[in-house]
TrEMBL record:
Location in or out of the cell: Endoplasmic reticulum
Compositionally biased spans, kind Gly residues: 1-17
GO annotation terms (biological process): dolichol-linked oligosaccharide biosynthetic process
Protein name as annotated: UDP-N-acetylglucosamine transferase subunit ALG13
Gene source species: Corynascus novoguineensis
Gene: ALG13
Keyword line: Coiled coil, Endoplasmic reticulum, Glycosyltransferase, Transferase
One Pfam family, short name: Glyco_tran_28_C
Coiled coil (UniProt feature): 255-282
Amino acid sequence: MVNGVNGVGGCSDGGSSSGSNSVSVTQARELKRRRVDLLSDDGVETHQNTPQTALPGRRCFVTVGATAGFRALLDEVSTAGFCLCLAEHGYTTLEVQCGPDEAAFAERVARLSDDDKHGIAIRSFGYTGNMQAHILNCRGQAGVRPAGCVISHGGTGTVGEVLGVGAPLIVVANPTLMDNHQLELAESLEEQNVAVHGRIGSLAAAIDRVAERIIQGTLDALPPYCPPSFPVPATDRITLFDWMVLTCYPDELAAQMHIADLDQAEADFAQQQQQAQQVSSQENNGLAQLD
């Protein structure tokens, strides 16, 4: 489950770091400025005596899921301030899966001027049948693309898919839902240091924290992604992440633990029966030899 944003050099409190390996937001932005200073007039990074193919800019993918809308999140990522924050960290593309609010989001984007977008290309759609492709575009890979980030609602399916791929993740709880499960999940993931807990009204701060984690975890230089084998072996189906998510649902966690105990008891009983049969067989063989 370790994938860079998941605690490799990350800060346990999610918002600050200390020690010789820590990198401030100011340093992160300075590194980005230095890279810009190395660009030639045609936008290609130059190195002395070392030809280098320029990598694409960072990508931010926002997803609200396929069921409930999340207008507050869509409204915040379609502002000039958010675009400026992305541009300062080297992002060039913002992709947004809007769910039922695609038309409203497109209308807000249409009202942004070119100056408001700060060079960010904004693309949107309602739904997608290939979520993983968009998530993979946010995963850094050495010599291919720098790490971006996924900003997701607190749906466990999406969160699990992003963490499985290894892309930096910001989880934003939808406050309009009937319960606080998304908030509990976001807080739990940040406590575990596997994701950033983003909050409506301060997503720029979450982008800053992701930038620090990208540098600390060297997420711009990950190896190629290798999808897991399918079907997943039975022994690997209940993962640490599954149990971590279940801590937000005490009744379901208790049920799963009870099922696991029953399975273990059944396995122990079967093993005892097998051992008893082996002992009985050995005794019968001994008696036969005496006869």
